Request: fold
Amino acid sequence: MAEAANPEGNSLYRLGGTCAATIAVAYLITIPLYAAVGAPPTGDGETWLNYLAGKTTGWWVILGLSVLTDLLFVPVAFSLYFALRRVNRTALLVATALVFLFVALDLAVTWANYGALIVLANHYASAATPAKRLADAAAANYPAAILSSRLEAVYAIVILSIGILITGLVMLRSVFNRPTAYVAVAIGVLGIATLTGSGLAVILNAVATIIWLFLVGYRLYRFAD
Reply:
């Protein structure tokens, strides 16, 4: 077992542990919100705008929580890098870079397009003329196409899952306990499996990620003791 924890990083460990637990709690909060708004459609812009009718408030809350969790992944990645860099610095650099790439793409691609659709849905619902409604529907076609593409799943799930997978493999040789490492490996495998379009893989990946974040938060707090 390679020694990974560094007493000089106590403040960073506490920050990372708090952020990891906060992400997990935020993910749990979004579950009933997603259940309330229902599964997003895969159609054109007008289909999305009709789906969002009466659901924009729920989606704004989901969007806000999702942006928050994306940003909180940054201190989590830093604290894990600090804790594990003595075990395999190169692997941790790759894993950290993947987490940062996920954060950047998720904010710029996924949630930016959701935000555009939510705004357009409000405009569409209050449009005074058919021509205005038609224009709003046409404007919604681009973000709808982005969110309905298979590539969006790579941005939203696979990149982060591979980063967690690499981190988990490093954890197997560190002071992190093996359950935390095994859950990380499972997240990576399930994340790759989502490319097949399996809804079960998406659900299991999300559940495993929540569990892993709680475990990471606990371990980082233990390092700070």
